[in-house]
Amino acid sequence: MNEYRSNATVEQIARRICSAGRILLTTHVKPDGDAIGSALALHRALDQKVIAADIYLMGPLEPRLREVAGDTPIFLDRSPPADEHDLVVVMDTGAWSQLEPIADWLRQRHDRIIGIDHHVKGDLVASMRLVDVIAASTTQILAGVIEAMGCEITGGPGGVAEAIFVGLATDTGWFRYSSAGPQAMRLAARLLELGVDKPRLYQIIEETARPQRLALMARALTSLEFALDGAVAIMTIRPEDFRATGGAVQDIAELVNLPMSVKAVRVAVLVAQTKPGRTKLSFRSKPDVPGVESVVSNDMNVLAQRFGGGGHVHASGASVEMDVDDARAALLAALEETACRRAS
Ligand SMILES: [Mn+2]
After folding, report:
1. How far, in Å, from the CA of 178 to the mean position of ligand 1?
2. How far apart are CA 306 and CA 19, in angstroms?
3. SS3 283
4. pLDDT single digits (tens) 153-206
5. CA of 137 relative to ligand 1 center, distance in Å
6. Residue 5 within a domain
7. CA of 35 to the centre of ligand 1 (A)
8. Whole-angstrom Cα distance, residue 25 to residue 252?
9. Prediction pTM value
10. What is the domain count for the chain?
11. Residues 224 and 84 placed together within one structural domain of the fold
């Protein structure tokens, strides 16, 4: 994994792309905003060069991201594409595990694959790699590549700028995360000057909920309870909550973050029974801050693993074969144990 770094310059990558006849543009399964933004940005730039390119995505693709794509054509498939490309560009991932449906197809084409990515870990999927772990998004790296290709960062709907902005905004939590440093902010400013319509994109990407979400949010907040001296906030959604609101699992995404606005809360958990004998646990925690002591461990990956799940340190999840009250009891027991370990 430690070999996963650049072995080509921006200029070399740009030259190779510009000398291709027909290019396949792809990214990780379940593309996010940066993944599709990367593919769209490069496709739109290649249009200027009259170089044929096909965006090949492995779904599911969220409707809001399809809306972002606008008129730019996309192939959504999970079987390998027909081989008619002399170059493949893999963006926003370098991990075989995220390219599984076409991994064998890619392995046979190693020498004509370019990888452009900002993740720390990856495999040697591509023979030519541009990896910049400082970049806030893959589209930020692509901005340089596209300019080195001699292409214009076109503004307005359906432009290159918009696609770059979508990756940058979504990967930085709309510029909240620490990854949104000076370079990312400068690029964002430039893209806005070029005509990117931020309110329009924000509405398309972020304001997509159904009214049922608010009804479930109200019930989740009513269920809110605190544990471990207020350091842990737990919300519970029961089958009757789904029934009464007409809501579904899609409507509770990220509701777990709601209690984080409370100062004393270090950890938030959402316990939601999605069907009989099946309960979803979502874990969130705040990063350590100097001078702020917490009685509870903020490693949500470790906590989720106790329930057969996993994820990241500050965001993880698990799904257990229990009804909601048993899951809630198991959670409280686990929290008590981790709290003791942290204190000792
Ligand atoms: Mn990314």
Report:
1. 14
2. 51
3. strand
4. 999 999 999 999 999 999 999 998 888 999 999 999 999 999 999 999 999 999
5. 5
6. no
7. 6
8. 33
9. 0.85
10. 2
11. no
